Amino acid sequence: MCAVYSVSEKLLARPITEADTDMVVMWRNNPRVVNNFLHREKVTREDHLNWLRTRVEPGIVDQLVVYEAGSGETDAERLESGRPIGCVYLRDIDHDAGNCEYGVFIGEDDCTGHGYGNEIASWAVGYARDHLHLTKMILRVLEGNESAYRSYLRAGFVPVEKIPDYIDGRDLIMMEREL
Length: 179
What we know:
single chain; alpha+beta; Aminopeptidase; 8-stranded mixed beta sheet; 6 helices; 31% helix
């Protein structure tokens, strides 16, 4: 059995596997998700498998699948009976510098607006600090993605730079958080 992490009372996470490929590709190509991602091209199965081989497996990215918890007495049972809803990832992990970039997406449309992004962002801060032993997280968010921006502020990230007209006339906001 793989590691299971308790994100919150309602959410669990586990490391991504190759078996998640079709689901993750579907989520990443969801127009709602694409609209708020910096990488706008359609993601193929081959793209995702390459990402796993060249980024996740070598430890440059730590990516987890997030689940709505089901029923059961243990986290493993709650994960098994739950439903996968999205991904959280820490990318460009640099243990020497002690930092990484944070990202998250909720792939299931009916799971937005429930505060899951807030719960995941708060959990990811502790995960990066306690599990990966990092000291700083950065992130990039496109202007207009207000729910994500508010979520990041609640998790303690602060805006540090704005890059005008980054994609489709939208500014890019750089944020960071000391751990």
